[in-house]
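INFO  loader      accepted 1 record
INFO  loader      residues=327
INFO  predictor   begin
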Amino acid sequence: EVSSYLPWDLRRTTTRVLEAIQPDLLMFTKTEVWPVLVDEARKRSIPVALVGGSVPPDASRLRQPTRTFLRATWKGLAVACAIADADADRLQSLGVSPGVICVTGDPAVDAVARRVATTDPTDAHLAPFHTDHRPTVIAGSTWQTDLERLLPAFERVRKEVREVRVVIAPHEPSGEAVTKLREHLERKSWSTRTLEEVELSASVSGADAIIIDRVGILADLYTIGHVAYIGGGFHRAGVHSVLEPAAARLPVIFGPRYKKSAAAVDLVSEGAAKVVSDAEGLANSLVTWLEDTEKNRYAASRAFSYIQAQRGGSERTVDVLAHLLGS
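INFO  predictor   done
INFO  writer      dumping tokens
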């Protein structure tokens, strides 16, 4: 097995890669199709599939000139597995042949659900939280634009919610970003630790704010929270994945740039998520879900029910691909 980045979508490099690997199937995810790679695959009779196909209503690929430029590429797909009916309709509008489109759901939901369900509470980065219970907010994948709302909101929350603890995971947890965030919090009289320090001491006692200083464990950390804030909703990139906190049975909060995420849209409509536009609204939502047990339990239940209802996409996708390969 080999894990690597695709080469630049140039005729010469793409040709060399396909001739070296000679794949039985070429598969893209979401809306990531590369025109030269697709064209060269078709010349070699290599079927090309799209899985977890998602086309938000404001996607750039729906607009000109990209729409016209990629139309032949979309038409070259042998299979397009869409997450939902609306995605299937938009894929067809882009040029995908109706006969190759099927709605299979989002395979990512299954992966996330399995990851959260198999989290080990005795792991070094989780065990200290389980022996020192406090109302906990998990702020994941935060950008500077998120922190500009989060940090003032946290100041108000800690005045209203006794012993609240915040866990903040910067989108890019560089040493500089962690240090800058820590210095800000300590100037505001928060008792801080990095996650590495928590692991080394095997204790979170007395810490009001934990700063996550590495990647790869955010999904686990949602399991020790009571409310989640997901970053990106105040950034041009849009909100990051809301699936992990929902799978961990957490109410979810994020900023106004969320409509490219079908799951975020669904969670709002299900009453499992709230959209906030400023620090005051964020503080209000945090206080409500930290202090009102019934409201928290309802939103958490709706979040988890959404995840359960969306499961099965992986199996359905595998069935389609197996049929494509003739197995």
